[in-house]
Structure formats: structure tokens, C-alpha cells
Amino acid sequence: MSEIKFISGADSFKVLNPLNPIYKQRYEGIVAFSDTLRAEMLRAGYAKGVFPWSVSAPYLWFFTDPRLVLDPSQLIISHSLRKRIRDALQNVYRRDGIKHKLEIFLDHAPEDVLSGCAAARPGQDGTWISRPLRRAYLESMKDGFFHTIECRVDGKLAAGLIFDSIGRMLYGESMFTTLPDLSKLALSTLCSIARSESVHMIDCQEATEHLISLGGTELSGSDFYQSLQKETARDPIDWRLYCGRSLNDCLGILLSDK
């Protein structure tokens, strides 16, 4: 595995070429490894389209090809999701015919959202969101890289989404929900903000039926990488504009052209 690069710090990514075909042909997308995870390494890796995907050291860094992405303007809104969005605009979540108060926030409870995303799903022992990765994510909030969206029902965290941001490039990481359709509302909120901020692409890393059903499409690794370089070079989003207030009203843009 001499072609697999050891990452000692953020600068190690500068000479990494994730498009080298040998990574896909021989190593199933593994391009590098490291013995630690730090905030500056995450930002440098994601700027190259490379992400860690291991629960313990050595941490393996991947570049998936093809790459699933979501154009925020192409989010598929089903009839049922449209009804949820309309309710959310009124701060309402309905379940079993009962109205509950719904509030959506940015970066309000990042540790709790990370815990929700890291919790084991039915049939799984755990997820790839290890404690070292969680620490690195939280540390990277200081420079605006890592963010969370929280959906609260009657004041209680019921769903959430974690994502990253460089320039106008967004990277969707993981979602969780304890109630029907709330993770879709979290993603819809992210797409709403993305549309308002002229974001063209959310990286979803790997294809799943769920994401494809919501409008995700695959790009070749080279097309993704070319777009990535353009989007990360654009002026960054000022996420402070979305903190400390309810984001429910942001969802209106999704219904404006329906």
C-alpha cells in the first residue's frame, strides 16, 4: 500500500491527488490514512473531497467515485413532505391528529445532534462517528466548518442533521430522527438556506436509495472534483445570520416555485 499517503497534518493534503486512478482500482477509494483526527485535518481533507471513514486508528480517508451530490434547487418534495413544510412554516408538527410546536435551529445543540447521529441504528452495532471524530467536529466549529440543524418538538430534540461548509460548498454527513419525516425537514431546511445562499451542490458522499429519492444524483469523481474546487473558492456563508433564531421561515423558498 505504498501509494496510500500517511497524513501527519493539514499540509499533507496539499500534495494529495485523489483522482489518481490507482486508489479506485486497487484500494476501493482509500487515498490516505492517519493516526489521529484534528479539526484542521478535516477542513484540509474535505477541501480535497476526502473524508475519514473509520471508527479507530489508523483512520482511513476516502474519495468515493462516483460521488452522490444533491443540487438544493432539485430537492424532490413529495406531497407528504410538502404538507410537513407548510405545517413547519406555522411552527406546527402534526402526529396522530395532534398539533405540536416545532422549532428548527442551527448550531443550537451540536453535541446532542452528534450523539443522535452516532447512536446505533436497528441491526447495527454503531456508526462511523467515533469519539475522536466527534471531538474534531466540535473543535472545527470555531472556524465555521462544522454545523448542525436541530428539529425540536415541544422543546425536545427530535431530529437533527450534521454538515460541513467550505466557501459555498456543503457536505452532508448524517441525519437522525425519532419522529416521522423530521430528518427530511432538517434536510429541507439545509436546502432552503443553500438556495438562499446560491449553493449549487451538497456532497452526499455515497449513493443511498433514500438520498436518490430526494433528488441526489451521481457525478464522476473528476466532475465532482472540478466543481468542488470552484465552490470551495467562493466567499463563505455567514452562518451567524442563521444562529439564535428559528429557521422555520427559511422553508418558504421551497414552496415558492411549486
Automatic annotation (TrEMBL):
Q: Sorted alphabetically, which Gene3D superfamilies does this protein's record hold?
A: Leucyl/phenylalanyl-tRNA-protein transferase, C-terminal domain (3.40.630.70), Leucyl/phenylalanyl-tRNA-protein transferase, N-terminal domain (3.30.70.3550)
UniProt GO cellular component terms = cytoplasm
- What UniProt keywords apply to this chain's record, in alphabetical order? Acyltransferase, Cytoplasm, Transferase
An annotated Gene Ontology molecular function: leucyl-tRNA--protein transferase activity
Q: Which PANTHER family does the UniProt record give?
A: LEUCYL/PHENYLALANYL-TRNA--PROTEIN TRANSFERASE (PTHR30098), LEUCYL_PHENYLALANYL-TRNA--PROTEIN TRANSFERASE (PTHR30098:SF2)
Q: Does the keyword Chaperone apply?
A: no
Gene Ontology biological process: protein catabolic process
Q: Which Pfam families match?
A: Leu_Phe_trans
Which species does this protein come from? Parasutterella muris
State the name under which the record lists this protein: Leucyl/phenylalanyl-tRNA--protein transferase
